[in-house]
Amino acid sequence: QVQLVESGGGLVQAGGSLRLSCAASGRTFSSYVMGWFRQAPGKEREFVACISWIGGTTYYPDSVKGRFTISRDNAKNTVYLQMNSLNPEDTAVYYCAAKTARPMFMSRRGEDYDSWGQGTQVTVSS
């Protein structure tokens, strides 16, 4: 497992933007699949984005496609989530996750990730 620390959450008005960051420990970050998930009060955890170990492949659900962008900087052991055109339905705690165990594959399922950050709150006001 690796340690993950998210940052960048906060309060923003509808239509605004935020960029979340997730710093990872470990020397093999470039071999991990990284993901972002979110959980709103009273709702189940929801997949938001994932990115392959090199960064060439990304997945998004329809709910955020075209508004959110996941990226990574393997030299800095950091993954980012750029969120644009935010709306109140995006309000949630956002979690960074890492899939470090083999076999390595892209996944939208939280169960496939073995390391999680503590979460960062994103609140979008109307």
What does this molecule look like?
This protein is mainly beta and 126 residues long. It contains no helices and eleven strands. It has strands at residues 4-7, 10-13, 18-24, 33-39, 46-51, 58-59, 68-73, 78-83, 92-99, 115-116, 120-125. Strands 2, 4, 5, 6, 9, 10 and 11 form a seven-stranded mixed beta sheet that branches. Strands 1-3-8-7 form a four-stranded antiparallel beta sheet, with no helix packed on it. A hairpin with a 6-residue loop joins strand 4 and strand 5 (46-51). It is globular and about 40 Å long.
Strand content: over 45%
- Label the overall shape: globular
Order of helices and strands: EEEEEEEEEEE
Q: Helical element count?
A: 0
Number of strands: 11
End-to-end gap: 38 Å
Radius of gyration: 13 Å
Poorly predicted runs of 5 or more residues: none
Main sheet attributes: strand count, strand direction, barrel closure: 7 strands, mixed
Which helices and strands appear, and what pairs or packs with what?
Elements: E1 4-7, E2 10-13, E3 18-24, E4 33-39, E5 46-51, E6 58-59, E7 68-73, E8 78-83, E9 92-99, E10 115-116, E11 120-125
Parallel strand pairs: 2-11
Antiparallel strand pairs: 1-3, 3-8, 4-5, 4-9, 5-6, 7-8, 9-10, 9-11
Summarize the structure.
The chain is an all-beta fold. The chain is 0% helix and 46% strand. The model has no long low-confidence stretch (mean pLDDT 96).
